[in-house]
Amino acid sequence: MTVLKTSMRNFFAHKGRMALSAVAVLLSVAFVCGTLVFTDTMNTTFDKLFAATSSDVTVSAKDASDTGETTSDTGKPPVIPAAALGTVRSAQGVEAAEGTVFSTSVTVVDADKDSLSPSSGAPTIVGSWNANDARTMKITSGAAPHGSGQVMVDEDTADKHHLRLGDEIAVISALGTHTAKISGIAAFQVTNPGAAIFYLDTPTAQRTLVGATDVFTNVNVTAAAGVSDAQLKKNVTAALGGDYKVQTAKETADANQASVGDFLDVMKYAMLGFAGIAFLVGIFLIINTFSMLVAQRTREIGLMRAIGSSRKQVNRSVLVEALLLGVVGSVLGVGAGVGIAVGLMKLMGQMGMHLSTDDLTVAWTTPVLGLVLGVVVTVLAAYLPARRAGKVSPMAALRDAHAPADARAGLVRAVIGLVLTGAGGYALYVAANADKASDGSLWLGLGVVASLIGFVVIGPLLAGGVVRVLGAVLLRVFGPVGRMAERNALRNPRRTGATGAALMIGLALVACLSVVGSSMVASATDQLDKTVGTDFIVQSDSGQVITPQAVQAIKSTRGLERVTEYKTLDANLTTPDGKVSKDETINAADPTYAKDLRTKTVAGDLTDAYRPDSMSVFEGFAKDHGIKLGSTVSVAFKDGRTAKLTVRAITSDDVVIDKGAMYASIATAARYVPADRMPLDQLVFATAKEGQQDAAYTSLKSALHDYPQYTVRDQTDYKQALKDQIGQLLNLIYGLLALAIIVAVLGVVNTLALSVVERTREIGLMRAIGLSRRQLRRMIRLESVVIALFGALLGLGLGMGWGATAQQLLALEGLKVLDIPWPTIIGVFIGSAFVGLFAALVPAFRAGRMNVLNAIATE
Known about the structure:
Pfam families: FtsX, MacB_PCD
Number of strands: 24
Largest sheet: 10 strands, mixed
Subcellular location: Cell membrane
Membrane topology: Multi-pass membrane protein
GO molecular function: transmembrane transporter activity
Domain ABC3 transporter permease C-terminal: 274-394, 736-851
Distance between the termini: 29 Å
C-alpha cells in the first residue's frame, strides 16, 4: 500500500511531464484501435451487403468468377443459355427462379460524356432489374425501367452527379453504346460501399451487355419453405448436370468477402505496422522520461532506502507509475481510436465509399488489445530506469543529487552498438552484391534491422562527435549562447542519443522510401526513353479492355502514321523438353509493335516473331526449357485450339517494360481463337506522322471524347503518370509515418522540459549573472534544434544507405538507375530544424518565466 501511495504521489506530482508520455501512448494505441475498428466496420458493411444481395442459390457459367465479377478480356460476361431457367424451375425444392443479366465491363456517361463511374475504384454495375434486387433497393422516385429507352439509377450516384428523372445517359459496352433516359431512382436498403448501379429491363440488358436475348449471366433461385440452401443446391445441380457453377448464398457471400478481405488485410496490417513504429518511437520517450525522473529523485530514493525501503520496493514504485501511465494513456487511446475510425469513415465517404456509423463495429478484442499493448509497452520501457533506481545505494544518493554514470555499462553498450552496426553494414553489403533479388532481400531485411538497432545502441557515442560538428557549423555563430546550447546537448549523451534516435527511425524510413521511389521513377523513365518508339499510348486506368468502337475511332484519327493493337491471351505451353507450362500469357500484337517497343533480344529479331505461326519467348524461359531459335512450342489457347508455333526470337530478361513477355501476332492468334472469344485490346499504340505530333495528340483526344474511360498519353504524360502514382503511394506512407514523427517531437519536448527542471538552479545562477530571458530561450531552442538535426542526420544517412541497397536489388529486375532525391532529403533536414524549434517553444517559454531567486534556492 505504501508503494502504491508513493507511486500515486509521484505520478501526480509530475503530471505535466507524464502527460506528454501519456499522449505518446494514447496516439499509438489510438492508431491500433482505430485501424481495427475501421477494418472491422468495413467487414461488417460488406458482410451485410453480400448477405442481403445473394439469392438462396445462384446459377452461373462454369467459368464465371466465384465473386460474380464479370470483367473479362472479351468485354462480355460469361453466359448460360436461357433454357437453363426452365430446367432450374422444374427442380425439386424451387419456389421461384429468375434469369438476370449484369456486367461490370461497362462505362456509363451523362449527356456531356462525363463518366458516372465511382472515383473510389468501386465497380460500375449495369444489370437487369429483378426480384432479388427489389429486396435490397427501394424505388424512391419514378418507376422501374420498361422498354429500351429507360434506365434506373441508384440514389447515391444520382445525388453525386446531380441526375434527375428524364436525364439521358449512355451505357458503353463492348457491343456499342446504348442511350436511355432515367425513369427511376432507387435507394439502397443496406449500406452501399460506393458502387454505381444502373438497371435496364431484361431484354434491353441482354442486347446491350451480351448481344443476345436467349442467354443470362445468372439464374437467381429461391428455396421453397423448409428447403435448405445446401439441399436446394444439390437438387439444382442434379437437374442441370455439371456444366454450371451453382453456389449457395453463403458460398457467394464468402467468396465476395474473401475477395474484399484480402484488400482489407493488406491495409490493416500495413497500418498496424506504422502503429508499431510509433510504439517503438514511444519507447524512447518513456525511457527518457523515467530515466530523468529517476535522476531527479535520486536523493528522495536514497532517503527511502535509508529508512528501510528495499530495492524491489523502489523498483516496484517506478513500475507502478509506469503502469498508471500506461493505463491512463491506453484508456484514452481506445476512445480516441473509435474517433479515428469514424474520421476514416467520413474520409472514405468524401472519396465515394459510403460507410454508415450504424455499422460501427467495436469487437471486445479491440479495447483489450489496446490496453494490453499500451500497458505492456509502457511498463517494459520503464523497466530499465526502474532497475537503475533500485541499484542506487542510500549513501551515494544522499551524497549527490544525481546518480553517477556507469562507465562499464557505457563501454559494453558502445561495443554492442559497434558490433550490431558492423553486422548491419555487412548484411547490406552482401545484399547489394547479391546475384538474385530473392536472396538479397533477406540480407537487406537483416541489414535494416541490425543497423537500426546498432545506431540506437551506439547513439550516445555518436552524439558526442555529431553534436560537436553541428555546433561548430551552426551554433558558434550565436556566440556564448550557442556554445552553452552545445554543452547542454553534450552533457548527457545517453539522453541526447535516445531523443535523437526516436526522430531517426521515422526519418530513416522516409529517406529510404524516397530513394527507392525516386530510383524507380528514374529507371522507368530511362527505359521509356530507350525502348518506347511510339508517340501515344491509349489505355483504361481502371483496367477495362478497349472496345472495337474506340479502336476504330483511334484508327480514323487524322495525322497518325500507324496504330498498333495489343491483346493478351491465356494458354498452356508444351515445350520441346516435354514439360507443360500452365496459365502462361501470350501477348498478341500487330507486327508494328516491334517498332513501338524496341525490346532487346539475345537471339533472333523480334520482327520475325510476328510472322505466321511464329512467336518469341523470354531468355529465362528459353534456358529453363532448352528452347532455341527454330524450336517448336505447342500453344493450347484457353479459348481456342492448339497451335504449333516456331520460336523466331528470344528476348532479353534485362528489361523493365514487358519483362518476361512472350509475343505472337494477332493474325496468328486469330487462326486458333474464334472471333467471338478473341480478347479485346488491353492497349493501343499510335504513332504520328513526322512533324504532326501536336496536331495528332489533339485529334486523338477529340476522337475519344465519347469514351472517357480511356486515357491518351504521350511519353511525357506517361512519365508524369508514373511519377504521380509512386508519389501518391509515398505521400500515403509519409502520412502514416507522421504519427511516429509526432511521437518523436513529443519526446524532444519532454526531454527539454525535464532538462529545464533538472537545471533549475543552474538557470537561476545564469540569470543572476546577466543571462537575459531572450538569451535563455534562445539557448534552449538551439539545444532542441541541434538534437533534432542530430536525429535527422543519423536517420537520413541510414535511410539513404538502405535505399541505395534496395535499389541494387531492383537493378536485378531492370531498374538500374540510382536517383537520390536531394530536394526531398535537404527539405527533410531543414524541416527537422523547424521541428526542433517547435518542440522548444513551451520549454523555452517556461524557462524564461522562472523566478531567479526561487530557481537559485532550488535544491
